[in-house]
Amino acid sequence: MANQFRFHPKANSEFRDSVKWHKQNREDSGKEFANDTFSKIDEILKKPESRSQDEDGIRWIGLSKFPYHIFYIFKAPIVWILAIWHTSRKKDKWRDRKIDIE
User: Class of 4-101 per CATH?
Assistant: First the structure.
């Protein structure tokens, strides 16, 4: 179990921008997007190592109601959220963020 999580600064911006976009374009979905995101973060915190990982130790989980993935790395006791990424975007564009937390 992880004790805490931290957003990479760019992941934090992605989260805020996504909430803002959903709030402006779909009634009440900004709050729903935020709730879905934090629900998945809670799930990650309970079992941070339960998701499969790639060769760089990066794990991911999909949101339940939105086409986004949360990419993260677990460095006990912290879960680092590297990206909140829409599934239509190329996922490798954020990979250099792992270097920022090591």
Answer: alpha beta
As a whole number of angstroms, the distance between CA 15 and CA 73 comes to 17
pLDDT, tens digit, 9 for 90 and up, residues 52-83: 899 889 999 999 999 999 999 999 899 999 99
Distance CA 8, CA 48 (A): 17
- As given in the structure block, the two tokens for residue 10 are 């760019």
Residues 6+ apart with CB under 8 A from 1: 45, 46, 47, 48
The domain ranges of the chain are: 4-101
Output the pTM of the full model.
Answer: 0.89
